[in-house]
Amino acid sequence: MLTEKVYQKNSWYCGSSSSSFDGGNRETISAMESKISYLNAELSSLADREKKREEREMKREKENAAANEAENKGNDGSTQKGDENDKSDKGSKGDEE
């Protein structure tokens, strides 16, 4: 008779409602639902933080690339001036010979 009563309690549970259990189980399910809601909110905020972090990284990489490109252009100009000076030095050495 006792197992029959337990079976009747469990047979009502379909997994979608907490109203099918007695008080103790209802509290447990309510607590689980609260935890699920909390974890879903945390997961959502985590995804937002991750997206913002990736955006900051991409922005930083673009800024670094732009700075490196500007630095390389600056170095190219000074290298060309140095090459011109080298050519003029070579020409003056040839003139001396």
Summary of the model, kept short:
The chain has 2 helices and no strands.
Please estimate the helix content.
over 70%
Oligomer: single chain
Strand content range: under 5%
Order of helix and strand elements from N to C terminus: HH
Average of the residue pLDDT scores: 74
Instruction: Write down the overall geometry.
Output: rod-shaped
Structural class: mainly alpha
The DSSP helix count reads 2
- The poorly predicted ranges are none
**Largest sheet properties:** none
Quantity of strands, as a count: 0
Global Rg: 37 Å
What is the distance, rounded to the nearest whole angstrom, between the alpha carbons of the first and last residues? 122 Å
Biased composition (Basic and acidic residues): 47-74, 81-97
Region (Disordered): 47-97
Summarize the structure in words:
This protein has helices at residues 2-12, 23-96. It has a domain at 20-78. The radius of gyration is 37 Å and the shape is rod-shaped. It has 97 residues and is mainly α. Residues 47-97 are annotated as: Disordered. Residues 47-74, 81-97 have a biased composition (Basic and acidic residues).
